Amino acid sequence: MGLVTINDLLTERKDRVALYRTWAYGLGEMYEDFVRKDDDDVRFEAGWHGAKARAAGIHASEMSGECRRQVWYSLMGEQREDKELDPFWKKRFRIGHMYHAMVQEDWRRLCEKSNGKMTFESEVRIAPELQEIAAQYDIHSSNDGVICFHEYAGGPPVLRVGLEIKTESPDQFKDLKEPKQMHLRQTCVYMKCLDLPLMWTMYINKGNQNIVPSKPPFTFSFDFDLWNQIEAEMNSVIDFATRNEEPPRKESMGCEFCGYSWVCQPDVLKKKDRREAAKKARAVQQKRLRVIGIGGIRVPKGLNK
Fold first, then answer.
1. CATH 3.90.320.10 holds for 8-264
2. Looking at CB atoms within 10 Å, which of 29, 111, 117, 196 has the fewest?
3. Cα(first)–Cα(last) distance of the chain, in Å?
């Protein structure tokens, strides 16, 4: 008995399911209380992978958006390239990785202090050699963590909850009323592959470190309908790959961060490059005019500011 697998949502007694949900809904308060009382000396390792380190195949994060062409490129083994992004964005992404590592270490230590009643596994791998559904669709990913409640110390789990950590700017966090659709899609893939009945999307405000509650809508059950939709989309991309035919792309500002934009060459980035080139040309022209004036007449020194 327990709420350990997706099937348990359908077969376990409703009153038991309701009880286990309340345990999951208390995770946020449990985490805040742990941090409040924590006075340990702590060291943890944090890092990130470059674009070229990602394996070929389908990745949950690539299924989160609307563009299926990046999924097609990944299936076809196309090389990802980490473009020369503005350092602002790279530093922002790296801070996100630091938050992930810190929170994962917090959950590891919290569960370690439960005397075996809870366990935590971080960066839970999804790969064809590990799960049947991952083998079927060539899925490669990792979920930030899985929290388990055990019937007794060292005993079998009675509740499994996925943990997905997301960081948001203060303005984004303020407007957050529910998980973003892209994150619901991403976590749905995790839940199916890892057979997780529940998931908490733990959004963190990077401005003041507040977190969203671990109650609905931020903690939710596996969505069967959403999985059916994602599965159909994956089958469609695989069909395109079998025919060696590119699927249509869905252009957005997200193309700026896509590791395949170098080969896809979306129009939205070409327009961006033209705007930036025009901006630089205007700056050069304005500097020239400040020096020589309009019509080629040199502006007296002291008046060209």
1. yes
2. 29
3. 78
